[in-house]
Design goal:
Layout lengths: L2 H4 L3 H12 L6 H8 L8 H13 L4 E6 L2 E5 L6 E5 L5 E4 L5 H12 L8 E5 L2 H4 L2
Parallel strand pairs: 3-5
Antiparallel strand pairs: 1-2, 3-4
Helix pairs in contact: 2-3, 2-4, 3-4
């Protein structure tokens, strides 16, 4: 980790706060638009760089690419997502933990040390099914 990544940054703190407050799993562009009024000097590149730092530090997760944009989550504990193919909504799914046994099997069969997982279910959300 470089020294610049270790420094506290008001922009990074604001970005993390915005990400954690937003339940829609926003893209970098959406976060940029939300923060720009309060940080006029903010650039989209800064948002992308800081999201990468937050991911590296385990404070953010890249969920999935939806409509060509990577979507992020400030909720970092393992959980699944539902992605609507019609409206592009990304929602958290509360499912029982199925990863524990899979971790053990992956470790046994491959000799690896699993550190996380990503599960996304795609389909049509209730709002799009019943407009």
């Amino acid at each position: 980790m470089t020294d610049c990544k270790r420094k506290n940054s008001k922009k990074r703190e604001a970005l993390l706060a915005a990400l954690r407050a937003e339940k829609s799993h926003p893209s970098a562009e959406a976060l940029y638009r939300a923060l720009k009024p309060d940080y006029p000097e903010l650039s989209l590149g800064t948002v992308y760089r800081n999201l990468a730092v937050l991911e590296e530090e385990g404070q953010a997760v890249a969920v999935a690419t939806v409509d060509g944009q990577l979507r992020y989550d400030g909720r970092t504990e393992p959980h699944a997502h539902f992605i609507c193919r019609v409206c592009s909504r990304v929602e958290d799914l509360e499912l029982p933990d199925m990863a524990g046994p899979l971790y053990a099997r992956a470790g046994e069969s491959l000799g690896c040390l699993p550190e996380g997982y990503s599960l996304s279910i795609r389909g049509v959300c209730a709002a799009c099914r019943h407009p």
